[in-house]
Amino acid sequence: MVETLTQSIQDYLKHIYELSREHGSASTNDLAERLGIAPASVTGMVQKLAASERALVDYKKHRGTKLTPAGRKAALEVIRHHRLLEAWLVQTLGYSWDEVHAEAERLEHVISEDFERRIAAAMGNPVRDPHGELIPTADLKMPHDDSTPLSALRAGQSATIQRVASADSDLLRHLESLGLVPGAHIEVTDFSPFDQNLTVRIGRGKSSVLGLNITSKIFFEKR
Fold first, then answer.
1. For the CA atoms of 78, 215, 159, 209, what is the dihedral angle to 10 degrees?
2. β-strand pairing of 148-149 with 218-222
3. Mean pLDDT, each 10-residue run in order, the chain (223 residues)
4. Alpha-carbon gap, residue 26 to 127, rounded angstroms
5. Three-class SS of residue 144?
6. What is the pLDDT, as a whole number, of residue 1?
7. What pTM value is reported for the model?
8. Which residues of 58-91 are buried (b: 16+ CB within 10 A; e: fewer)?
9. Cβ neighbours of residue 94 under 8 Å, at least 6 residues apart?
10. What is the dihedral sign for C-alpha 133, 12, 104, 150?
11. In angstroms, rounded to a whole number, what is the distance separating the alpha carbons of residues 115 and 200?
């Protein structure tokens, strides 16, 4: 389906999907910030998408924008392309996890469905990308995710990192230098209720103090 949509529309649908997962719907201001354009331009586009013959979004003034079933399917197709490409770039071409986002952003709009199937098969149909994010299935369904942010942990608890929800290259390089990558085991040794800082021991290595800006972006599965 995405082959018939412009790159701009694909970007709108992808960001509406992501914002809706976080907040229930996508506000005009949040969409404008994500896309780097004026709120008035966002309003015009979502109204157009809502009024089209095959409506891709449901827009209500002051209540945000949500995807219709057709819009959700198109968004998941773009996200599947993006996350498969990230996995392929890391596994096949030796990219690091902090480099792949920008490349995948460019390529996600142009690959064919045949190319998508081929790279998925070549990698053994991965279920997660290099950041641990789930990859939508071939029939465009998002697998259930019950991970919890690291910020919910307290002293004495331990966990295994499952995913990192960030495309910030500087942050990803910093996390990798600390060993805070998917699959790493951590143990919380201290919690500060005043600033929400966690002191964690990473594997058998040294301890690090992590602020909320980091712990809110790292998700874990309990052991």
1. 140
2. antiparallel
3. 83 95 92 94 94 90 92 96 97 95 94 95 96 97 94 95 96 96 96 96 92 96 68
4. 26
5. coil
6. 60
7. 0.91
8. bbeeeebbbbeeebbbbbbbbbbbbbbbbbbbbe
9. none
10. negative
11. 42
